[in-house]
C-alpha cells in the first residue's frame, strides 16, 4: 500500500504541476461560467425572451427605436387597416403616399425602406431599393393582406369577423401530467454526458498508455520496478488518472451548472434541457462514469506495456478504441429508445453500462435492483480488469523490441500461473 501511495502521489503531482492541464481546466470552467453570465451584461432579450440589461443600454435601445424604418403605402381600393399594420410592423412608420410615383421616388432616394401599392383585395406591388438576404418585409405584409382580405369578405357578406377570428384563435390550455420521465426534456443533457464520459475515457486512457510506454522507451521502468512493484505502478497511474479526471470534469461541470443556476432567470429557463440535470442522474453519472473509466483505464495501461515505442500505442490500443467507439455509437442510437431490449442488455454489460445505465435512469424506466445489479457487475469487472491488466503489465514492462501480441501475452500469463 505504501508503494502504491508513493506512485499515486507522484502521478498526481505530474498532473497538477502540468501547466497545460491546469490552465485548460481553469479556462474551460471560467469560459463556460462567463458565457452563461452574458445576459446580465448584454441584451440577449431577442434570443432569451428576457430583457435584463443596464440602464444605459436601455436608453440606447430607446433612442434606436425612435428612428423607425419608413414604409410607404398606396392603397388604391381602401383596404388597409392601420391597427393591423402597426401590429405586424411595430418597429416601422407607415406613410400614406399621394401616388405611386411619389412612393417610387421615396424608395429610389432611399427615404423609405420599402413601398407597397395595393392593386386589389388579393394583389399588391412591392418596391424596394436593395433586397437583403434576410428580407422578410414582404412575408409580413402577405400576412397583413390576408387579414385585410378576410375583413373585406366578412363586411361584404355581413359576417362578424371578430367572432370568426376568436373562433380560429381560441386558446387551448394544456396541463401536462408527466407520470414518469420527460424524454424530450432530458435528451440534450444525456447527449452531452455521453460525449463527456466518452472523451474522458479516450483522453485519459491514451494518456495512461503513453505514460507507461514512455517509461519503457526511456528505460526508467527498469529503475522503477526495483523500488516498487509493477502492480503499484499500474494501479497508481490508473487511480491518479481517475482522480485527476474526476476533479477536472467536476470543476468544469460545477462552474457551468452553478453559473447557469445563478443566471437561470436571465436566460428565462430556456437552457433547462441542457443544464438542469436531476441529482439522481448526476450521481449515477458520477458512479457509472468513474467505473467505466477505471475499467478501460486498466486495459489501456496494460496495452501501453505491450509496446516499447509511443508511436505503437495507437496500434496496441486499437481494439479498445474500436470497442469504445461501438459503445458510443450504440449509446447515441439508444437515446431515442432507451427501454428497448438492446438498451436493457447494454445497461448491464460492463463495457457499456457506464453510459447506457444513466441514460435509462434519465429517460426510461428502471428498477432500483437493476441499477444495483448493473453496478455490482461493473465493480466485479473493474477488479477483474485490474488483476488481468496487472499481469499483462508485469509481463510486458521489461520486454522490448516488437510489440507483444495480446494472444502471446495471454499465453505467457497462463504459463506463469
Task: Summarize the structure in words.
This protein has 417 residues and is mainly alpha-helical. It is 68% helix and 6% strand. A 4-stranded mixed β-sheet has the order 2-1-3-4, sandwiched between helices. Helix 9 (183-217) runs parallel beside helix 13 (279-305) and helix 13 runs antiparallel to helix 17. The chain starts with a helix and ends with a helix. Mean pLDDT is 79; it is low at 53-65.
Q: Which stretches are low in confidence, meaning pLDDT under 50 for 5 or more residues running? A: 53-65
Choose one word for the global shape: elongated
State the distance separating the first and last CA atoms.
Answer: 23 Å
Let me know the number of strands: 4
* Amount of helix: 55-70%
pLDDT averaged over residues: 79
Alpha-beta classification:
mainly alpha
Can you give me a brief rundown of this structure?
Helix content is 68%, strand content 6%.
Which features would summarize this protein structure in a list?
elongated, mainly alpha, 4 strands, 417 residues, 4-stranded mixed β-sheet
SSE order and pairing:
Blueprint: H1 2-16, H2 19-36, H3 45-48, H4 55-66, E1 69-75, H5 82-88, E2 92-96, H6 100-108, E3 114-120, E4 123-127, H7 137-156, H8 161-168, H9 183-217, H10 220-227, H11 230-267, H12 272-275, H13 279-305, H14 313-316, H15 318-334, H16 341-346, H17 353-363, H18 368-396, H19 406-416
Parallel strand pairs: 1-2, 1-3
Antiparallel strand pairs: 3-4
Helix pairs in contact: 1-11, 2-11, 9-11, 9-13, 9-15, 9-17, 11-13, 11-18, 13-17, 13-18, 18-19
Amino acid at each position: 500500500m505504501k508503494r502504491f501511495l508513493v506512485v499515486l502521489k507522484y502521478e498526481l503531482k505530474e498532473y497538477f504541476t502540468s501547466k497545460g492541464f491546469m490552465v485548460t481546466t481553469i479556462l474551460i470552467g471560467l469560459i463556460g461560467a462567463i458565457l452563461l453570465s452574458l445576459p446580465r451584461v448584454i441584451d440577449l432579450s431577442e434570443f432569451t425572451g428576457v430583457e435584463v440589461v443596464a440602464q444605459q443600454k436601455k436608453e440606447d435601445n430607446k433612442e434606436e427605436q425612435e428612428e423607425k424604418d419608413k414604409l410607404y403605402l398606396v392603397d388604391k381600393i381602401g383596404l388597409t387597416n392601420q391597427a393591423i399594420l402597426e401590429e405586424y410592423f411595430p418597429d416601422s412608420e407607415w406613410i400614406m403616399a399621394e401616388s405611386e410615383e411619389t412612393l417610387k421616388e421615396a424608395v429610389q432616394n432611399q427615404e423609405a425602406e420599402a413601398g407597397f401599392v395595393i392593386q386589389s383585395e388579393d394583389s399588391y406591388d412591392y418596391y424596394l431599393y436593395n433586397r437583403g438576404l434576410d428580407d422578410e418585409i414582404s412575408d409580413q405584409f402577405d400576412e397583413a393582406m390576408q387579414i385585410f382580405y378576410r375583413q373585406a369578405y366578412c363586411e361584404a357578406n355581413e359576417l362578424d369577423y371578430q367572432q370568426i377570428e376568436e373562433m380560429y384563435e381560441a386558446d387551448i390550455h394544456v396541463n401536462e401530467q408527466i407520470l414518469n420521465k420527460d424524454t424530450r426534456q432530458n435528451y440534450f443533457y444525456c447527449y452531452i454526458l455521453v460525449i463527456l464520459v466518452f472523451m474522458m475515457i479516450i483522453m485519459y486512457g491514451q494518456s495512461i498508455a503513453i505514460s507507461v510506454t514512455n517509461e519503457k522507451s526511456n528505460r526508467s521502468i527498469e529503475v522503477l520496478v526495483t523500488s516498487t512493484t509493477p502492480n503499484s505502478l499500474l494501479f497508481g497511474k490508473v487511480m491518479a488518472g481517475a482522480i485527476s479526471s474526476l476533479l477536472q470534469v467536476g470543476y468544469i461541470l460545477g462552474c457551468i451548472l452553478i453559473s447557469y443556476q445563478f443566471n437561470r432567470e436571465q436566460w428565462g429557463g430556456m437552457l433547462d434541457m441542457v443544464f438542469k440535470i436531476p441529482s439522481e442522474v448526476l450521481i449515477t453519472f458520477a458512479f457509472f462514469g468513474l467505473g467505466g473509466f477505471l475499467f478501460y483505464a486498466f486495459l489501456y495501461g496494460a496495452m501501453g506495456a505491450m509496446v516499447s515505442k509511443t508511436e505503437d500505442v495507437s496500434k496496441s490500443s486499437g481494439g479498445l478504441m474500436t470497442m469504445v467507439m461501438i459503445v458510443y455509437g450504440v449509446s447515441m442510437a439508444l437515446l431515442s429508445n432507451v427501454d428497448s431490449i438492446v438498451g436493457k442488455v447494454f445497461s448491464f454489460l460492463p463495457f457499456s453500462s457506464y453510459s447506457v445505465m444513466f441514460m435509462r435512469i434519465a429517460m426510461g424506466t428502471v428498477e432500483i435492483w437493476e441499477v444495483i445489479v448493473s453496478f455490482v457487475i461493473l465493480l466485479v469487472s473493474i477488479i477483474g480488469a485490474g488483476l488481468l491488466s496487472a499481469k499483462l503489465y508485469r509481463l510486458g514492462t521489461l520486454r522490448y523490441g516488437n510489440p507483444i501480441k495480446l494472444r502471446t501475452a495471454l499465453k505467457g500469463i497462463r504459463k506463469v500461473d
